[in-house]
Amino acid sequence: MTFLGIVNSKEYKTWKHPTPFLPCFHFYEIHESESIKVPAKEITQAVKNFEMSDDLFIKTLSKIRNAPTYLLNKLGRKNNDQEFGLKTFTPLNENSHEISMGLTGRFWQKDLGIIHQPDLESFINFDDHKSAKLVLRFLVREHLNGYHSLVTETFIFCPNDNVKKKFTFYWFIIRPASGFIRKRALSVIINKLKNKF
Fold first, then answer.
1. Residue (of 185, 189, 157) closest to 62 by Cα position
2. Fewer C-beta within 10 Å: the chain N or C terminus?
3. Distance CA 106, CA 113 (A)
4. 86-140 pLDDT, tens per residue?
5. Residue 96 near residue 17, CB atoms below 8 Å
6. pTM for this one?
7. Rounded CA separation 89/120 (Å)
8. pLDDT digit string, tens, across residues 66-99
């Protein structure tokens, strides 16, 4: 069991289902929804259709986090009007039970420091000693009698101690809000499916 989401080398070596898209990972977070009687493929489709703006709380927290980027854009220091959301990520893998997406950059910076990767190959080959790599995995977990739950897992890889130190500080600050957003997103997705089925 990780302490505050920090994964040591011993824990990683015995990890049952690590993401295959990182050489290893140093931080980890997991959240799971309630189970509902909905086909797995419908749940993964609902994940693909989800937008941060679908929920007021998530939208508000995201706007607060994006405020520095917005100000930098207005001051002319950045030229990126795209709001942070699932579409910011690079698609890595998708099937009826799983969607994995990746992100690279210096997330602790005011503007998130995102370095966009166009595809899986670019993400895998990305090698910057000043940046971290993140994988967000949505996994549909099977239960008895046709019930399924939706799980979100976040894996973060830091290439060296310097990046790990910077990310650790950021992790402790952002983790409570990040966890809330993940839980809230799961709730929004599941409630929409409940209303549909």
1. 185
2. N
3. 5
4. 889 999 999 999 999 999 999 999 888 999 999 999 999 999 999 999 999 999 9
5. no
6. 0.88
7. 11
8. 544 545 455 555 545 556 778 899 999 999 999 9
**Which among 87, 80, 45 is positioned nearest to 66, based on CA atoms?**
80
Q: 3-state secondary structure string, 136-168? A: EEEEEEECHHHCEEEEEEEEEECCCHHHHHHHH
Architecture of domain 28-196: 2-Layer Sandwich (3.30)
Judge contact between 160 and 10, C-beta under 8 A.
Answer: no
Angstrom distance (rounded) from CA 196 to CA 184? 18
The 98-105 sheet, strands edge to edge: 27-32, 148-157, 132-142, 98-105, 90-95
Stated as kind and residue range, the H or E segment containing 95 is strand 90-95
SS3 104: strand
Domains of the chain, by residue range, sit at 28-196
What phi and psi values does residue 57 have, to the nearest 5 degrees? -65, -45
Distances (CA, A) of 125 to 6, 23, 86, 160: 24, 11, 21, 16
* Tokens 């997103």 sit on residue: 185
Rounded to whole angstroms, the Cα distance separating 36 from 95 reads: 19
Which token pair is 188? 């929004």
Handedness of CA 146, 184, 58, 6 (dihedral sign): negative
